[in-house]
Amino acid sequence: MKYKNRIGLGALIFLSVSSFQIQAKPSHEPHRPKKGHAKQLVQIQTAVDIQLQEIVAGQNLSSTIPELSALPHISEPIPQLGMKLFFSKALGAEKTVACASCHHPRLGGADGLSLPIGTNAVNPDIIGPLRLTSDTINIPRNSPTIFNVGLANSSLFWDGRVQRITTTDTSGTEISGITTPDSGFGIIDERVGNDLVGALSRFPVTSREEMRGQAFPNALDNQSVREHLAQRIGNYGELANELDKNEWLKEFRQAFNSNDASQSLITFDSIAFALGQYQASVNLVNSPWHDYLRGNQNAMTQAQKRGAALFFTQISDGGAGCVNCHGGTRFSNDGFFNLAFPQFGIGLNEHNSDEGRFLIDSEQRNMFAFRVPSLLNVELTAPYGHSGAYETLEEVVAHYVDPQSAISGFFEKGGACGLRQFTQDQHCQSLNNNALENSQTALNLLQLSPFVAPPLNTNQQADLVAFLKSLTDKCAKDSRCIRRFEPSPRTPDPDNLRLKVQNIILGRT
To answer: What is the percent of the chain with per-residue pLDDT over 70, rounded to a whole number?
Structure first.
Protein backbone atom coordinates (compact mmCIF):
# COMPACT_ATOMS: atom_id res chain seq x y z
CA MET A 1 0.00 0.00 0.00
CA LYS A 2 1.27 3.48 -0.79
CA TYR A 3 1.00 5.33 2.51
CA LYS A 4 0.98 8.73 0.82
CA ASN A 5 -2.51 7.96 -0.45
CA ARG A 6 -3.80 7.84 3.13
CA ILE A 7 -3.18 11.52 3.88
CA GLY A 8 -6.72 12.52 2.94
CA LEU A 9 -8.29 10.41 5.67
CA GLY A 10 -8.42 13.35 8.08
CA ALA A 11 -8.33 13.10 11.85
CA LEU A 12 -10.01 10.39 13.88
CA ILE A 13 -10.97 10.87 17.51
CA PHE A 14 -11.39 8.12 20.06
CA LEU A 15 -11.41 7.76 23.82
CA SER A 16 -8.24 6.69 25.55
CA VAL A 17 -6.53 7.02 28.92
CA SER A 18 -3.25 7.68 27.05
CA SER A 19 -3.86 11.03 25.37
CA PHE A 20 -2.92 14.54 24.44
CA GLN A 21 -4.56 15.67 27.71
CA ILE A 22 -7.79 16.97 26.14
CA GLN A 23 -10.80 16.32 28.38
CA ALA A 24 -13.96 14.89 26.82
CA LYS A 25 -17.01 17.14 27.18
CA PRO A 26 -19.52 15.49 29.57
CA SER A 27 -23.06 14.79 28.35
CA HIS A 28 -24.50 15.32 31.84
CA GLU A 29 -23.82 17.31 34.96
CA PRO A 30 -20.12 17.51 35.79
CA HIS A 31 -19.02 15.21 38.57
CA ARG A 32 -15.80 14.61 40.42
CA PRO A 33 -14.11 11.36 39.40
CA LYS A 34 -13.69 8.82 42.14
CA LYS A 35 -10.38 8.95 43.90
CA GLY A 36 -7.83 6.67 42.23
CA HIS A 37 -9.60 6.66 38.86
CA ALA A 38 -7.93 8.36 35.89
CA LYS A 39 -9.90 10.88 33.89
CA GLN A 40 -11.21 9.69 30.58
CA LEU A 41 -9.35 11.67 27.96
CA VAL A 42 -9.43 12.11 24.21
CA GLN A 43 -6.54 11.16 21.96
CA ILE A 44 -6.45 12.63 18.49
CA GLN A 45 -5.13 10.44 15.73
CA THR A 46 -4.19 12.23 12.55
CA ALA A 47 -3.56 10.68 9.17
CA VAL A 48 0.17 10.57 9.89
CA ASP A 49 -0.51 8.64 13.11
CA ILE A 50 -2.40 6.02 11.17
CA GLN A 51 0.23 5.95 8.44
CA LEU A 52 3.10 5.51 10.89
CA GLN A 53 1.31 2.78 12.83
CA GLU A 54 0.81 0.87 9.60
CA ILE A 55 4.52 1.28 8.79
CA VAL A 56 5.54 0.09 12.26
CA ALA A 57 3.32 -2.97 11.96
CA GLY A 58 4.15 -3.69 8.34
CA GLN A 59 7.93 -3.52 8.89
CA ASN A 60 7.78 -5.05 12.37
CA LEU A 61 9.74 -2.11 13.73
CA SER A 62 8.96 -3.02 17.34
CA SER A 63 11.44 -5.88 16.91
CA THR A 64 14.22 -3.33 16.45
CA ILE A 65 14.08 -2.13 20.07
CA PRO A 66 17.63 -2.84 21.31
CA GLU A 67 18.13 -5.79 23.65
CA LEU A 68 20.79 -4.91 26.21
CA SER A 69 20.71 -7.90 28.56
CA ALA A 70 23.83 -9.50 27.03
CA LEU A 71 25.88 -6.31 27.26
CA PRO A 72 27.95 -5.24 30.27
CA HIS A 73 26.55 -2.71 32.75
CA ILE A 74 28.54 0.30 33.87
CA SER A 75 28.14 -0.69 37.52
CA GLU A 76 30.03 -3.97 37.05
CA PRO A 77 33.67 -4.26 38.18
CA ILE A 78 35.37 -4.69 34.79
CA PRO A 79 33.52 -1.81 33.05
CA GLN A 80 34.42 0.30 36.10
CA LEU A 81 38.08 -0.63 35.63
CA GLY A 82 37.77 0.13 31.93
CA MET A 83 36.32 3.54 32.74
CA LYS A 84 39.33 4.37 34.92
CA LEU A 85 41.67 3.28 32.13
CA PHE A 86 39.65 5.18 29.51
CA PHE A 87 40.08 8.44 31.43
CA SER A 88 43.77 7.91 32.30
CA LYS A 89 46.47 9.70 30.33
CA ALA A 90 48.82 6.86 31.29
CA LEU A 91 47.61 5.05 28.16
CA GLY A 92 48.97 7.91 26.09
CA ALA A 93 52.63 7.09 25.64
CA GLU A 94 53.62 10.69 26.40
CA LYS A 95 51.07 10.81 29.27
CA THR A 96 49.19 13.65 27.60
CA VAL A 97 46.19 11.95 25.96
CA ALA A 98 43.46 9.70 27.32
CA CYS A 99 40.91 7.78 25.29
CA ALA A 100 38.33 10.22 26.69
CA SER A 101 40.24 13.16 25.17
CA CYS A 102 38.49 12.36 21.88
CA HIS A 103 35.57 10.23 23.11
CA HIS A 104 33.94 11.97 26.05
CA PRO A 105 30.41 11.10 27.26
CA ARG A 106 29.48 14.77 27.63
CA LEU A 107 30.47 15.41 24.02
CA GLY A 108 28.18 12.78 22.51
CA GLY A 109 30.79 10.09 23.06
CA ALA A 110 33.18 11.93 20.71
CA ASP A 111 34.95 15.32 20.80
CA GLY A 112 32.71 17.90 19.12
CA LEU A 113 35.39 18.62 16.52
CA SER A 114 35.40 18.11 12.76
CA LEU A 115 38.90 16.61 12.93
CA PRO A 116 40.44 15.33 16.17
CA ILE A 117 43.44 16.76 17.99
CA GLY A 118 45.54 14.12 19.71
CA THR A 119 49.12 14.32 20.87
CA ASN A 120 49.72 17.81 19.45
CA ALA A 121 47.17 19.67 21.59
CA VAL A 122 48.17 23.05 23.01
CA ASN A 123 46.61 22.12 26.36
CA PRO A 124 46.13 18.36 26.79
CA ASP A 125 43.51 18.84 29.50
CA ILE A 126 41.17 20.89 27.30
CA ILE A 127 38.75 18.87 25.20
CA GLY A 128 35.88 19.74 22.91
CA PRO A 129 35.51 22.87 20.76
CA LEU A 130 38.18 24.79 22.70
CA ARG A 131 40.87 22.17 22.09
CA LEU A 132 43.58 23.62 19.85
CA THR A 133 46.52 22.15 17.99
CA SER A 134 50.07 23.33 18.63
CA ASP A 135 50.92 23.06 14.91
CA THR A 136 48.64 21.59 12.24
CA ILE A 137 45.86 19.04 12.07
CA ASN A 138 47.41 15.60 11.50
CA ILE A 139 44.47 13.20 11.94
CA PRO A 140 42.40 12.72 8.75
CA ARG A 141 39.08 11.40 10.09
CA ASN A 142 36.34 12.50 12.47
CA SER A 143 36.13 10.83 15.91
CA PRO A 144 33.26 8.30 15.99
CA THR A 145 31.04 8.14 19.06
CA ILE A 146 31.41 5.38 21.63
CA PHE A 147 27.67 5.54 22.41
CA ASN A 148 26.03 2.12 21.85
CA VAL A 149 29.20 0.72 20.29
CA GLY A 150 28.47 -2.53 22.10
CA LEU A 151 25.50 -3.04 19.78
CA ALA A 152 27.83 -3.14 16.76
CA ASN A 153 28.37 -6.68 15.57
CA SER A 154 30.03 -6.33 12.18
CA SER A 155 32.81 -3.74 11.92
CA LEU A 156 34.28 -0.64 13.56
CA PHE A 157 36.28 2.41 12.42
CA TRP A 158 35.20 4.49 9.41
CA ASP A 159 36.75 2.00 6.98
CA GLY A 160 35.75 -1.12 8.90
CA ARG A 161 39.35 -2.21 9.37
CA VAL A 162 38.32 -4.06 12.54
CA GLN A 163 35.69 -6.48 11.26
CA ARG A 164 34.11 -9.85 11.94
CA ILE A 165 34.74 -12.27 9.11
CA THR A 166 34.18 -15.90 8.25
CA THR A 167 36.85 -17.71 6.29
CA THR A 168 38.28 -21.20 5.85
CA ASP A 169 41.49 -22.61 7.30
CA THR A 170 44.05 -24.72 5.44
CA SER A 171 41.98 -27.86 5.99
CA GLY A 172 38.88 -26.26 4.49
CA THR A 173 37.10 -25.81 7.82
CA GLU A 174 34.99 -22.67 8.16
CA ILE A 175 36.18 -20.40 10.98
CA SER A 176 35.01 -17.04 12.28
CA GLY A 177 36.99 -14.26 13.91
CA ILE A 178 38.04 -10.64 13.69
CA THR A 179 40.37 -9.15 11.13
CA THR A 180 42.49 -6.16 12.16
CA PRO A 181 45.33 -4.03 10.74
CA ASP A 182 47.78 -6.26 12.63
CA SER A 183 46.68 -9.42 10.83
CA GLY A 184 45.97 -7.81 7.48
CA PHE A 185 42.63 -7.48 5.71
CA GLY A 186 40.65 -10.71 5.49
CA ILE A 187 42.96 -12.56 7.91
CA ILE A 188 41.79 -13.44 11.41
CA ASP A 189 43.82 -11.80 14.18
CA GLU A 190 44.41 -14.59 16.68
CA ARG A 191 45.27 -12.14 19.46
CA VAL A 192 41.86 -10.45 19.72
CA GLY A 193 39.46 -13.37 20.17
CA ASN A 194 35.79 -12.55 19.56
CA ASP A 195 35.62 -9.13 21.25
CA LEU A 196 34.96 -6.51 18.57
CA VAL A 197 35.12 -3.45 20.84
CA GLY A 198 38.14 -4.82 22.68
CA ALA A 199 39.84 -5.33 19.31
CA LEU A 200 39.19 -1.69 18.40
CA SER A 201 40.72 -0.60 21.72
CA ARG A 202 44.10 -2.00 20.74
CA PHE A 203 44.80 0.55 18.00
CA PRO A 204 44.41 4.22 19.05
CA VAL A 205 47.23 3.78 21.60
CA THR A 206 49.61 2.77 18.79
CA SER A 207 48.96 5.85 16.61
CA ARG A 208 51.62 8.56 16.92
CA GLU A 209 49.05 11.21 16.01
CA GLU A 210 46.28 9.99 18.31
CA MET A 211 47.88 8.74 21.56
CA ARG A 212 51.47 7.54 21.19
CA GLY A 213 53.36 10.66 20.12
CA GLN A 214 57.15 10.25 20.00
CA ALA A 215 57.48 8.05 23.08
CA PHE A 216 58.80 4.48 23.13
CA PRO A 217 61.40 4.93 20.36
CA ASN A 218 62.45 1.29 20.70
CA ALA A 219 58.91 0.02 20.06
CA LEU A 220 59.08 -1.02 16.41
CA ASP A 221 55.56 -2.37 15.94
CA ASN A 222 52.07 -2.08 17.41
CA GLN A 223 52.43 -5.01 19.76
CA SER A 224 55.64 -3.61 21.20
CA VAL A 225 53.89 -0.31 21.98
CA ARG A 226 51.14 -2.22 23.78
CA GLU A 227 53.67 -4.22 25.78
CA HIS A 228 55.35 -1.00 26.90
CA LEU A 229 52.00 0.37 28.07
CA ALA A 230 51.17 -2.86 29.92
CA GLN A 231 54.52 -2.68 31.71
CA ARG A 232 53.85 0.93 32.67
CA ILE A 233 50.37 0.18 34.04
CA GLY A 234 51.50 -3.11 35.61
CA ASN A 235 54.66 -1.57 37.11
CA TYR A 236 57.01 -4.28 35.87
CA GLY A 237 59.74 -4.87 33.30
CA GLU A 238 61.53 -1.97 31.61
CA LEU A 239 58.86 0.52 32.67
CA ALA A 240 58.63 -0.41 36.35
CA ASN A 241 58.28 2.66 38.61
CA GLU A 242 57.70 4.95 35.62
CA LEU A 243 54.50 6.32 37.16
CA ASP A 244 54.91 8.45 40.27
CA LYS A 245 51.76 6.83 41.64
CA ASN A 246 50.70 3.35 40.60
CA GLU A 247 47.82 1.53 42.26
CA TRP A 248 46.64 -0.29 39.15
CA LEU A 249 47.42 -3.78 40.47
CA LYS A 250 44.88 -3.30 43.24
CA GLU A 251 42.29 -2.15 40.69
CA PHE A 252 42.90 -5.09 38.33
CA ARG A 253 42.81 -7.63 41.15
CA GLN A 254 39.53 -6.26 42.39
CA ALA A 255 37.94 -6.10 38.93
CA PHE A 256 39.07 -9.56 37.80
CA ASN A 257 38.71 -11.12 41.27
CA SER A 258 42.27 -12.39 41.05
CA ASN A 259 45.42 -12.40 43.15
CA ASP A 260 47.73 -12.99 40.19
CA ALA A 261 51.00 -11.11 39.89
CA SER A 262 50.97 -8.00 37.74
CA GLN A 263 53.01 -9.60 34.92
CA SER A 264 50.28 -12.15 34.28
CA LEU A 265 47.25 -10.06 35.24
CA ILE A 266 48.06 -6.69 33.66
CA THR A 267 48.71 -7.49 30.02
CA PHE A 268 47.47 -5.39 27.13
CA ASP A 269 44.92 -8.11 26.45
CA SER A 270 43.33 -7.47 29.85
CA ILE A 271 43.64 -3.70 29.37
CA ALA A 272 41.90 -3.87 25.96
CA PHE A 273 39.22 -6.16 27.37
CA ALA A 274 38.44 -3.72 30.19
CA LEU A 275 38.40 -0.78 27.79
CA GLY A 276 36.04 -2.69 25.51
CA GLN A 277 33.73 -3.64 28.36
CA TYR A 278 33.49 -0.02 29.46
CA GLN A 279 32.67 1.22 25.97
CA ALA A 280 30.16 -1.59 25.46
CA SER A 281 28.43 -0.51 28.67
CA VAL A 282 27.70 3.01 27.40
CA ASN A 283 24.22 2.06 26.22
CA LEU A 284 21.83 4.93 25.58
CA VAL A 285 18.64 3.83 23.85
CA ASN A 286 15.85 5.36 25.94
CA SER A 287 14.59 7.68 23.22
CA PRO A 288 11.17 9.07 22.24
CA TRP A 289 11.20 6.77 19.21
CA HIS A 290 11.69 3.71 21.36
CA ASP A 291 8.99 4.94 23.74
CA TYR A 292 6.70 5.24 20.73
CA LEU A 293 7.48 1.68 19.62
CA ARG A 294 6.62 0.50 23.13
CA GLY A 295 3.14 1.97 22.74
CA ASN A 296 3.36 5.58 23.92
CA GLN A 297 1.82 7.36 20.93
CA ASN A 298 2.41 10.73 22.60
CA ALA A 299 6.17 10.23 22.86
CA MET A 300 6.80 11.98 19.52
CA THR A 301 5.65 15.24 18.01
CA GLN A 302 3.65 15.35 14.80
CA ALA A 303 6.72 16.63 12.95
CA GLN A 304 8.77 13.69 14.25
CA LYS A 305 6.05 11.28 13.16
CA ARG A 306 5.94 12.80 9.68
CA GLY A 307 9.72 12.49 9.56
CA ALA A 308 9.53 8.85 10.64
CA ALA A 309 7.04 8.12 7.86
CA LEU A 310 9.44 9.67 5.35
CA PHE A 311 12.39 7.77 6.82
CA PHE A 312 10.76 4.34 6.53
CA THR A 313 8.96 4.90 3.21
CA GLN A 314 10.66 4.22 -0.12
CA ILE A 315 11.41 7.09 -2.49
CA SER A 316 9.15 5.50 -5.10
CA ASP A 317 6.27 5.80 -2.63
CA GLY A 318 6.96 9.43 -1.75
CA GLY A 319 9.39 8.89 1.12
CA ALA A 320 13.10 9.37 1.69
CA GLY A 321 14.15 5.71 1.71
CA CYS A 322 16.59 6.21 4.60
CA VAL A 323 15.73 2.80 6.06
CA ASN A 324 17.53 1.05 3.21
CA CYS A 325 20.89 1.86 4.79
CA HIS A 326 19.85 3.02 8.25
CA GLY A 327 17.58 0.21 9.35
CA GLY A 328 17.66 -2.28 12.19
CA THR A 329 18.44 -1.94 15.88
CA ARG A 330 21.34 0.49 15.39
CA PHE A 331 19.87 2.35 12.42
CA SER A 332 22.75 1.07 10.31
CA ASN A 333 23.20 -1.84 7.92
CA ASP A 334 27.00 -1.71 8.52
CA GLY A 335 27.61 -1.35 4.80
CA PHE A 336 30.17 0.85 3.05
CA PHE A 337 29.03 3.49 0.59
CA ASN A 338 30.37 6.53 -1.20
CA LEU A 339 27.99 9.41 -0.53
CA ALA A 340 30.47 12.09 -1.63
CA PHE A 341 30.55 13.98 1.62
CA PRO A 342 33.08 16.81 1.15
CA GLN A 343 36.72 15.81 1.16
CA PHE A 344 39.05 18.13 3.05
CA GLY A 345 41.96 17.88 5.46
CA ILE A 346 45.26 16.09 5.15
CA GLY A 347 43.74 12.96 3.64
CA LEU A 348 45.70 9.73 3.40
CA ASN A 349 47.87 10.29 0.33
CA GLU A 350 49.93 12.95 -1.40
CA HIS A 351 46.79 14.31 -3.08
CA ASN A 352 45.07 14.86 0.28
CA SER A 353 42.24 12.49 -0.62
CA ASP A 354 40.74 9.85 1.64
CA GLU A 355 39.56 6.90 -0.42
CA GLY A 356 38.00 5.18 2.59
CA ARG A 357 37.28 1.47 2.42
CA PHE A 358 39.16 1.20 -0.87
CA LEU A 359 42.47 1.57 0.99
CA ILE A 360 41.98 -1.81 2.69
CA ASP A 361 39.68 -3.54 0.19
CA SER A 362 40.48 -2.38 -3.33
CA GLU A 363 37.22 -3.26 -5.05
CA GLN A 364 36.17 -0.32 -7.20
CA ARG A 365 32.84 0.04 -5.39
CA ASN A 366 34.77 0.86 -2.21
CA MET A 367 36.38 4.01 -3.63
CA PHE A 368 35.50 6.89 -1.23
CA ALA A 369 33.19 4.51 0.65
CA PHE A 370 32.79 4.75 4.42
CA ARG A 371 30.90 2.70 6.98
CA VAL A 372 27.24 3.60 7.50
CA PRO A 373 27.13 5.11 11.01
CA SER A 374 24.47 4.39 13.58
CA LEU A 375 21.86 7.14 13.93
CA LEU A 376 21.14 6.51 17.60
CA ASN A 377 21.79 9.81 19.44
CA VAL A 378 22.90 11.37 16.15
CA GLU A 379 21.65 14.75 17.37
CA LEU A 380 24.58 14.79 19.83
CA THR A 381 27.42 13.56 17.63
CA ALA A 382 28.08 16.51 15.32
CA PRO A 383 30.06 17.30 13.22
CA TYR A 384 29.07 14.65 10.69
CA GLY A 385 30.76 12.60 8.00
CA HIS A 386 34.17 10.98 7.81
CA SER A 387 35.84 14.40 7.91
CA GLY A 388 33.25 16.27 9.96
CA ALA A 389 32.35 18.50 7.02
CA TYR A 390 28.74 19.11 8.10
CA GLU A 391 28.00 20.73 11.43
CA THR A 392 24.22 20.25 11.51
CA LEU A 393 21.71 17.55 10.67
CA GLU A 394 20.01 20.02 8.35
CA GLU A 395 23.18 20.16 6.26
CA VAL A 396 23.43 16.36 6.19
CA VAL A 397 19.84 15.93 5.00
CA ALA A 398 20.34 18.68 2.39
CA HIS A 399 23.36 16.78 1.06
CA TYR A 400 21.27 13.65 0.48
CA VAL A 401 18.65 15.71 -1.36
CA ASP A 402 21.16 17.52 -3.60
CA PRO A 403 24.80 16.45 -3.16
CA GLN A 404 26.13 18.82 -5.83
CA SER A 405 24.55 21.90 -4.25
CA ALA A 406 25.61 20.83 -0.75
CA ILE A 407 29.25 20.39 -1.80
CA SER A 408 29.21 23.71 -3.64
CA GLY A 409 27.75 25.37 -0.55
CA PHE A 410 30.46 23.87 1.65
CA PHE A 411 33.23 25.40 -0.45
CA GLU A 412 31.39 28.69 -1.00
CA LYS A 413 31.51 29.12 2.80
CA GLY A 414 35.27 28.56 2.77
CA GLY A 415 35.54 24.78 2.97
CA ALA A 416 37.55 23.94 6.08
CA CYS A 417 37.92 27.64 6.91
CA GLY A 418 34.13 27.94 7.19
CA LEU A 419 33.91 25.33 9.94
CA ARG A 420 33.69 26.46 13.55
CA GLN A 421 36.83 24.53 14.50
CA PHE A 422 38.97 26.40 11.98
CA THR A 423 37.49 29.89 11.68
CA GLN A 424 40.33 31.33 13.79
CA ASP A 425 43.01 29.01 12.41
CA GLN A 426 45.47 30.94 10.24
CA HIS A 427 46.56 27.66 8.64
CA CYS A 428 43.04 26.54 7.68
CA GLN A 429 43.61 26.98 3.95
CA SER A 430 46.13 24.14 4.04
CA LEU A 431 43.19 21.85 4.86
CA ASN A 432 41.59 22.87 1.56
CA ASN A 433 44.49 21.64 -0.57
CA ASN A 434 42.95 19.58 -3.42
CA ALA A 435 39.71 19.44 -1.42
CA LEU A 436 37.38 20.66 -4.16
CA GLU A 437 38.95 18.39 -6.76
CA ASN A 438 38.78 15.35 -4.48
CA SER A 439 35.18 16.12 -3.57
CA GLN A 440 34.25 16.39 -7.24
CA THR A 441 35.89 13.04 -7.96
CA ALA A 442 33.86 11.39 -5.21
CA LEU A 443 30.72 13.12 -6.53
CA ASN A 444 31.37 11.89 -10.08
CA LEU A 445 31.51 8.33 -8.77
CA LEU A 446 28.33 8.85 -6.75
CA GLN A 447 26.52 10.00 -9.89
CA LEU A 448 27.50 6.73 -11.59
CA SER A 449 26.16 4.65 -8.70
CA PRO A 450 22.60 3.44 -8.01
CA PHE A 451 22.13 6.28 -5.49
CA VAL A 452 18.85 8.16 -5.91
CA ALA A 453 18.42 11.52 -4.18
CA PRO A 454 15.07 11.82 -2.40
CA PRO A 455 13.12 14.85 -3.74
CA LEU A 456 12.26 16.33 -0.35
CA ASN A 457 10.99 19.88 0.00
CA THR A 458 12.09 22.18 2.81
CA ASN A 459 9.27 21.16 5.15
CA GLN A 460 9.93 17.47 4.58
CA GLN A 461 13.61 17.96 5.30
CA ALA A 462 12.72 19.68 8.56
CA ASP A 463 10.43 16.79 9.49
CA LEU A 464 13.19 14.29 8.77
CA VAL A 465 15.58 16.19 11.04
CA ALA A 466 12.89 16.25 13.73
CA PHE A 467 12.62 12.47 13.53
CA LEU A 468 16.40 12.05 13.78
CA LYS A 469 16.25 14.04 17.01
CA SER A 470 13.66 11.62 18.36
CA LEU A 471 16.46 9.01 18.42
CA THR A 472 18.20 10.84 21.28
CA ASP A 473 18.36 9.11 24.64
CA LYS A 474 17.08 11.25 27.51
CA CYS A 475 20.16 10.59 29.66
CA ALA A 476 22.57 11.20 26.78
CA LYS A 477 21.70 14.89 26.62
CA ASP A 478 21.47 15.39 30.40
CA SER A 479 24.91 16.54 31.56
CA ARG A 480 24.24 15.25 35.07
CA CYS A 481 22.77 11.89 34.09
CA ILE A 482 25.53 11.12 31.57
CA ARG A 483 28.17 11.42 34.27
CA ARG A 484 27.42 7.88 35.37
CA PHE A 485 29.85 6.99 32.56
CA GLU A 486 32.60 9.19 33.98
CA PRO A 487 34.75 8.72 37.08
CA SER A 488 33.24 10.66 39.98
CA PRO A 489 35.29 12.66 42.49
CA ARG A 490 35.02 9.61 44.76
CA THR A 491 36.31 7.16 42.13
CA PRO A 492 39.87 6.06 42.96
CA ASP A 493 42.51 7.59 40.67
CA PRO A 494 45.22 4.90 40.42
CA ASP A 495 47.92 7.10 38.83
CA ASN A 496 46.98 10.77 39.28
CA LEU A 497 46.84 11.08 35.48
CA ARG A 498 43.06 11.22 35.12
CA LEU A 499 41.64 13.57 32.51
CA LYS A 500 39.60 16.11 34.44
CA VAL A 501 37.24 18.47 32.64
CA GLN A 502 35.06 21.43 33.56
CA ASN A 503 32.34 23.25 31.62
CA ILE A 504 34.76 25.74 30.11
CA ILE A 505 37.04 22.89 29.04
CA LEU A 506 34.15 21.20 27.27
CA GLY A 507 33.80 24.28 25.11
CA ARG A 508 30.93 26.06 26.87
CA THR A 509 31.87 29.60 27.86
So the answer is: 90
